[in-house]
Amino acid sequence: MIRYCRLRFMLSLILVFLACTVASAKSGQEHVQQWNDVFGVRDSTSRINIQPLWKVAQDVIDGVGEDYRDLQNRFTWFKWGSLGHRLLFHWGFNANPQNYAPLVRQVRLCLKGNPDARNQERQFFAYLTRNIQAPRNQKLINAVTSVTGIPTARGYANAVATILYDVHLLGDYTTTNTSALPKIDDIESDLVGKGFNRLLAGGDKSERLKKIEAELLDAIRVGRGRVNSACANNLSQAVRKYLPQILNERFSKTSGAKGITYSND
After folding, report:
1. The model's pTM
2. Exposure on the CB side of residue 116, measured as CA atoms within 13 A
3. Which positions ≥6 away from 222 have C-beta within 8 Å?
4. pLDDT of 1-18, one tens digit each?
């Protein structure tokens, strides 16, 4: 009887752990589904052909294990603490990790009482930015160009990488563990300034693109001032509505040659 009770107790703990994990994290497949949705990748052929990009993106944003171990080996004092994997690489594609408040606070907490704290902090961020962050970003840009055919010219590939990254972060706002995520306002600013503005500004802007731009900005403004999860959902819906239209206007032939089409419905 005692053994049976212990077994039930252990099973209960496992179920609670799994429930908390689901609530505080978004699975890789859920992120893939969201990317397919907001990029307008509907047909099975396109989804198969674009899958390598989603895999790279998921590795770049959430695949932190190897680089976390690298940081711990070089800076033995560093631990990500209660914030977990989102403390790393969830600051966004264009952000400087040295300015990312959750990471700065954790680094300084780890270095509290260390007589060489200032120098260690400087070395940590220099190494993270140059040796880890930059290669990860380049890996994502390379995947955008090789998988979709979208070029680096005029910052197009960087813009797509930015939007892809920000959509992932918006998806993470549907979970409970959001303390290590950028502020919604910062995601919106990055999404518009480094994402959509680059896609819309490069090359000639057709009347159709001008109309899309105006409608997109209006749709984004509507969601401001709400709770974070609602703001995140509004931004995701705005991306879903207008990004496929822009990609079709700019890159329908380019991506079509790679077997990828973007649906506007």
Report:
1. 0.86
2. 6
3. 234
4. 555 445 454 444 333 333
